[in-house]
Amino acid sequence: MSGIYIHIPFCRTRCHYCDFYTTTQIKRKPELVDALIKEMELRQLWLEGETIKTIYFGGGTPSLLSADEVSMILDAANNLFRLDSKSEITIEANPDDLSTKQIRLLANTPVNRFSIGIQSFHNHQLQLMNRRHTAQEAVDSVKRVQDAGIHNISVDLIYGLPESNRTLWNQNLEQVSALNVKHLSAYHLTYEKGTVFEVKSRQGKIFPCSEEESILQFKALVNWAKEQDFIHYEISNFGKKGFFSQHNTNYWMQQKYIGLGPSAHSYNIETRSWNVSNLSVYVNTIQKGELPQESETLSEKNKYNEFLITSLRTRWGIKLDVFERLFGSEEKERLIQKAAPYIKQEKLYLKDNSMILTDEGVFLSDLVLSELMVLPDED
Amino acid sequence: MENIRNFCIIAHIDHGKSTLADRLLQVTNTISERDLQAQVLDDMDLERERGITIKSHAIQMDYEWNNQKYVLNLIDTPGHVDFSYEVSRSIAACEGALLIIDATQGIQAQTISNLYLAIEHNLEIIPILNKMDLPNAMPEEVKDQIIELIGCDESDIIEASGKTGQGVPEILEAIIKKIPAPSGEKDAPLQALIFDSVFNSFRGIIAYFKVNHGEIRKGDLVKFVNTGKEYNADEVGVLRLKPEPREILRTGDVGYIISGIKTSKEVKVGDTITHVKNPCTRAVAGFEDVKPMVFAGVYPVDADQYEDLRASLEKLQLNDASLTFEPESSLALGFGFRCGFLGLLHMEIVQERLDREFDMNVITTVPNVSFTCYTKKGEKIEVHNPSGLPKENLIDYIEEPYIKAQIITVADYIGPIMKLCIDKRGELQSQVYTSSNRVEVSFEMPLSEIVFDFYDKLKSISKGYASFDYYRTGFKRAKLIKLDILLNGESVDALSALIHVDHAYEFGRKICEKLKELIPRQQFDIAIQAAIGAKIIARETVKAVRKDVTAKCYGGDITRKRKLLEKQKKGKKRMRQIGNVEVPQKAFLAVLKLD
Ligand SMILES: Nc1nc2c(ncn2[C@@H]2O[C@H](COP(=O)(O)OP(=O)(O)O)[C@@H](O)[C@H]2O)c(=O)[nH]1
Ligand SMILES: C[S@@+](CC[C@H](N)C(=O)[O-])C[C@H]1O[C@@H](n2cnc3c(N)ncnc32)[C@H](O)[C@@H]1O
Ligand code: SF4
Ligand SMILES: [Mg+2]
After folding, report:
1. Which of A259, A265, A370 is opposite residue B569, by nearest beta carbon?
2. Total structural domains within chain A
3. Which of A23, A204, B352, B432 has the most C-beta neighbours closer than 10 Å?
4. DSSP state string for A218-280
């Protein structure tokens, strides 16, 4: 089971928290589409003929693509790879792009899942983040997608914003319930280097919310999910039964994926590789028939660490029998020993031969992980 | 002997000692124009370590004056008071001293202490005003300072420039005319003063000496009086640009001896060389076994490197006899060594050499001075480490070392400087205005008070316009107590300090605050406490981390996430585990940087 990630780096404007690779040169879409298809040709054999079950258009802003462009890319994928006819095909969309017409056209392509970047249903928070839509537009866009017959919808929200509080956050969650979407990605704001938020917080112009407030918002989120029958299946992801994101789940399950487009990442068990984060370099290199890539071969220790990092993010945790098969019984014992203090402190628990983060543990997952990991230069 | 002149140079750093010395070597043809040129053109590093010529610790020059041939021995002195005993020994080998003062800077504190040592030894002082070529030279003002200090005539002061060569012939003339020839009895039994030694990896230890009485020949069987050791004088000679072997050295001569000595511990500066047969009846007066005054724990960052550290310290000791060390273990830091240093600069030099020459990464604990503890049973115990202090109820009293501190500054800063010294338990001894705007103050104060952040504070309150120097004066009774630092209830030996009662509360509070800043948050609350005995006098808490999560998904970019976590883990590994608390290395020196 493998996936394809396609990076569409265009954005009309840049949001104040965002450090994904994006560019505002939207007029270069045709070049990109051309290069994406060329990259697929160049890397046709990369997944060694495995069946593709998920495709994900991520960004940037994939909803800036016309339905024709989406179709061209999907046709090429279908011709070059073994595409399962029941594949999950997701497009990330910004509310301001989701006109009735655009939705109708996209609904006519094989795309069958929408991930809508809403971030907040409060206008003042949207402005703070430099979003291009209003709260009302966000609500309307979801309804329009539903009206077009697509119900596999996810929305993105960000919590822990500057000057946020539980009331505002609970209102956001209630709106998600009211809209009856099937999936929610709720990310705690991170201050990424070079973003407007990070610069302003360094200058003392905005104030990150307190740790206490973060934790309370997180707890509110977890409780809300329980009440609403959303399953908290990954640190930041919540889905109704049968509506988990298969594409993202594959990332945590050590499944292969090929990433196309500038800055996209690929993984095939033995190596990880990533394309250059620069549209011109990407396009020019591809047009020369070369791959604008860097890669690393994963050592045993890299694999060990990544297995922990990816597994622990999910509600299924580290499956100890799989771990043992991959790294041996000695390592398994060592892992259990290292985990013991955290199990005692109820940050981790063991269930059905798996090691899983507790709700409290989720919020300390980096700390627990760094403790369980091995350093690349230690034995 | 009548034509020998032995002299040293007293100068503050950068006042031009090396440059002027080079001039003397050049004019006396000891060093050729070509060699000098090569030296000047050397790269930066060497440039900084210039004085290579006089770095050989002593150098001999020939000079013809009034148709007479003279032998001039320039003996170098270490610049810093940490080495004041060594300075006093090299001064003892001379009959005169060139006092070099930068005409743009005036006299600095360090110059004064060394000058006093020279005057104490009855050296003839030749005052020189250097850098006269510079437009901002202030000869009148600086001459006044000199006259004030040594009571000479204005006409005695030579105006010179190491750069242009101005004054160099006058300096040579003054050396010959004013500095007396060495006096000594050439027929008496051999008495020679060791004033320095160096370690040479091929030849072993080379000792430098001046013959006070008698003579020494190659092959003589000699004895070092204070160590009692006997050697064969395998080679004796004089110091030109390179060592030049000689058959014989006579009364008044300065030279070197190589005799198969392996470690610098055997050669004590200030010791006397004499013959095994027909020894001198009296050794050179003033011999002291120099004792380290500042102690600190030195621990390998990587516990596996304990043996490597020992080997490195042993090698350092080969050419630095004043460094002492003994094994020590700390609950907090594991196995390491308690090292003794002559002073703070010496400590820094050792640390730097460990790093630069041996690639040893070490944690140095809070330094403390050496205390003397008298018990009720009448024992006298030297305490080098707070944990070495006997139990409170066994102690009769404690004595701590005192210094005389000399500070020269401009009048504007005298107020805050006085306050600083008084806060540091200093007692004003004298305050002299050497000109309308220059003040010289001297304080008697505890050495331990300058170990902690004294220099930094002095520098900042005087905006750099203060020069400071000190020498040790003896011991005085003090009300000292042991202050313990506890992390989650566990006392951290490496952080405890002996401190004056009056400072204990404030110190305890500040160190807790500082540690709170330096210890990263962990999964549980960390209590930081300062205690005297069972009494807690200060407390801070480092709150537990409750959020440490990368919530955002980086798409398929697992590499970035992995590298971030690996970095987090590496950072932790560099910390020391104390009980259940992870403590970063810099916390151990926290007390030095208290504000
Ligand atoms: N203009 C001028 N500069 C000098 C003179 N003597 C030394 N210097 C400079 O002052 C600095 C310190 O000189 P140096 O001989 O190394 O001083 P030391 O630290 O006392 O040995 C160097 O940059 C020299 O070039 C002088 O007479 N005139
Ligand atoms: C790469 S963005 C692309 C989605 C789309 N362009 C949009 O803005 O709706 C995917 C999601 O990551 C989340 N995100 C991006 N940067 C973030 C940050 N610094 N902190 C928290 N969440 C962030 C946002 O929720 C965003 O919707
Ligand atoms: S959040 Fe989405 S729209 Fe905003 S800059 Fe990032 S990728 Fe573009
Ligand atoms: Mg010099």
Report:
1. A370
2. 2
3. A23
4. HHHHHHHHHHTT-EEEETTEEE-TT-S-HHHHHHHTT--EEEESTT-EEE-SSEEEEE-S-HH
